[in-house]
Design goal:
By secondary structure, the protein is an alpha/beta fold. Helix content is about 35%, strand content about 15%. The protein is globular. The C terminus is likely disordered.
Length: about 160
């Protein structure tokens, strides 16, 4: 069964990179943005894996409940907006599920490299297919680690 990801700020450069990389790895991705039409091209590129979601901070609890109702699970939250409300909304679910990861990407990292590091840390996926690798991309140090591994600073494990 494919992991279900929620990516906030999916309309930004970092968010778009993460959505594309996670979908290419086989994950189901809920791409959340204030204006969901801004991610319709990602839905078109990955029609079986990417869903657009309009999300404002005050709707976090409702949005997470809708994802859980539809998919019956949520495995990874990638919070590119650093909005604590969405993190609070998923923590109780991760606690009940006894697994899950919250990832806050490094804003200073190169988006494609950061997306690759995040996907590699939270899936069993190999490297990105060559056709998705952007021109001029370069490898940077991964800033994310598997949920719960000592020394991880970018991933928070639920209680």
């Amino acid at each position: 069964m494919a992991k279900v990801w929620l990516v906030t700020g999916a309309d930004g450069v970092m968010g778009r990179s993460i959505v594309a990389a996670a979908a290419a790895s086989g994950a189901v991705v809920v791409a959340a943005a204030r204006h969901p039409e801004s991610v319709y091209d990602l839905v078109g590129a990955f029609p079986r894996q990417v869903e657009a979601l309009g999300l404002a901070p005050e709707q976090a609890d409702h949005a997470v409940a809708g994802i859980l109702s539809h998919h019956r699970r949520l495995d990874v939250l990638v919070n590119t907006t650093s909005d604590r409300a969405i993190e609070d909304a998923v923590l109780s679910h991760f606690s009940r599920q006894r697994s899950g990861a919250i990832v806050r990407p490094d804003d200073d990292a190169e988006p494609w490299a950061e997306a690759d590091a995040i996907v590699a840390a939270h899936t069993e996926a190999g490297p990105r297919p060559k056709g998705l690798q952007p021109l001029g991309s370069r490898a940077v140090r991964p800033t994310v680690d598997r949920c719960g591994r000592p020394g991880s600073t970018a991933t928070r494990r639920s209680a």
